[in-house]
């Protein structure tokens, strides 16, 4: 079966510690610093796919698939329109290297899709799009996030053991950068939400002569009554001067 079994151990002159691997480590270190310098999570995702094509031997195109709302899989970053087409095929037929890596937490190699038996429907349609090689890495996994980085090549045999070794190191750096970007965005959003709720409480306190706790209770009651997020209730009040429901009578 093509691509089964990945030997993760560099050997001989190719082993880490040799001169060429020292150069690889330095290059990946530079890439990691550049990824951490991005402004937000989407910029980081876009930078990851661009850097992957430059850093990983054999890669011509790259994409990141993620599990999003309600378990749907979506391509969130890509280096070309071809990636969108190929990853849409994976989702359409329910098979492919990216999905295997995504759901089974594997490094998945497919050096020649013409000889591939694991995903026959995907292999046939990907070949029709001009993709003959693929290599996928689990990118990051947490309670909320699940993703995979997949590299594509129009040439069979483009991905070898060096591609796997470099790609695994690259994916580790990328995962760290993405996690940091996500945490920063979450912190920024949390601070913004806190400030917004504070403004909404201030409006209610002034208008109805309420205490801070009473004003917060009004926001919570409006949120529950309208099945609306507390943040959205506060945002509506700050923007319009009115609560989105009539469940805002002062205690």
Structure commentary:
The chain is of the alpha+beta class. Helix content is 55%, strand content 13%. The chain has helices at residues 19-36, 41-55, 81-93, 97-104, 120-128, 161-208, 212-226, 230-240, and strands at residues 61-67, 73-78, 108-110, 133-141, 146-153. It has a 5-stranded antiparallel sheet, sandwiched between helices. Strand 4 (133-141) and strand 5 form a beta hairpin. The radius of gyration is 24 Å and the shape is elongated. InterPro entries: ANTAR, CheY-like_superfamily, GAF, GAF-like_dom_sf, GAF_ANTAR, WH-like_DNA-bd_sf. This is ANTAR domain-containing protein. Keywords: Kinase, Transcription, Transcription regulation, Transferase. Residues 1-12 have a biased composition (Basic and acidic residues).
Summarize the structure.
This protein has 251 residues and is α+β, with helices and mostly antiparallel strands.
């Amino acid at each position: 079966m093509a691509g089964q079994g990945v030997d993760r151990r560099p050997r001989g002159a190719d082993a880490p510690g040799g001169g060429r691997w020292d150069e690889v480590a330095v290059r990946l270190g530079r890439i990691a610093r550049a990824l951490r310098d991005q402004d937000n999570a989407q910029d980081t995702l876009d930078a990851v796919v661009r850097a992957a094509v430059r850093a990983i031997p054999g890669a011509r195109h790259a994409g990141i698939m993620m599990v999003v709302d309600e378990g749907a899989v979506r391509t969130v970053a890509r280096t070309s329109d071809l990636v969108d087409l190929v990853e849409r095929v994976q989702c359409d037929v329910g098979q492919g290297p990216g999905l295997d890596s995504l759901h089974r937490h594997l490094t998945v190699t497919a050096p020649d899709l013409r000889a591939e038996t694991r995903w026959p429907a995907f292999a046939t349609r990907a070949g029709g799009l001009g993709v003959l090689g693929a290599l996928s890495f689990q990118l990051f996994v947490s309670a909320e996030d699940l993703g995979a980085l997949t590299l594509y090549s129009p040439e069979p045999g483009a991905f070898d053991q060096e591609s796997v070794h470099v790609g695994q190191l690259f994916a580790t750096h990328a995962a760290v950068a993405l996690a940091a970007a996500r945490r920063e965005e979450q912190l920024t959003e949390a601070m913004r939400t806190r400030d917004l709720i504070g403004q909404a409480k201030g409006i209610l306190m002034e208008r109805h002569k309420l205490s801070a706790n009473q004003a917060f209770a009004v926001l919570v009651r409006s949120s529950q009554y309208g099945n609306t997020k507390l943040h959205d209730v506060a945002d509506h009040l700050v923007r319009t001067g009115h609560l989105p429901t009539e469940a805002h009578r002062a205690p």
